[in-house]
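Form 7-S
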Amino acid sequence: MRWIVTAGLAVLLGACGAESGAPAAEQTGSGAHVSLKPNLKRNIDPARGRDIFVEKGCVLCHSANGVGGKAAPALDAEVGAPPADPLDFAARMWRGAPAMIELQSVELGYTIYLTADEIAHLAAFAADREAQRQLTPDTLPENIRNGLLDQRFWEMEDWDDYLARGREGEMQPEVPEEAPIDRN
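Output:
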C-alpha cells in the first residue's frame, strides 16, 4: 500500500510541475516556502486525452458523452466549465484512488499507471465537450466495447466509508427487532 501512496504522490507532483531534484523548500525568516516551476502550463490535447481514456481503460468504468462503463462517475464536460486544470483533475483522481485501485485490480488484474502529461491530457478531455462528442461506441475497440462495466459500483457501495477509512464492508449488519435470541 505504501508504494501506491508513493506512486500517487509522484504523479500528483508531476502534474503540479514540481521538479525532481529541485530543493523542496527554502527557509526564510517567515517560514518555509515551496519552490515550484514558475510556469505550470502544459501543452495539453483533448484528443490525446480521449485516446488515453480508451487506451488505458478508463472508459471501462467511466463514461463520457454517454459512452463507456457505469461502474464509476461519468466524466461529461459541463457547459460553460472553466478551462481544464490538471492539478484539480489530479486531486479529484486522488480522492477516488482507493476505489479506482480496487476496481482496476479486480477487473483488470493490474492498476493503471498515468504520467503527469497523461493526466493533463485526460483533464483536457474531461473538460472539452467537442472532444467528447468524438467518442462514440464505434470508436471503441471491440475488446473494450465488450468489457464495459455496467454495474454502478459507486452508487451501490459505501465509497464514502471506503475513502474515509481505506476499507469497506465493515459495518455491522442490522438485526431485525423480532429476531430470535440465541440463549445457548
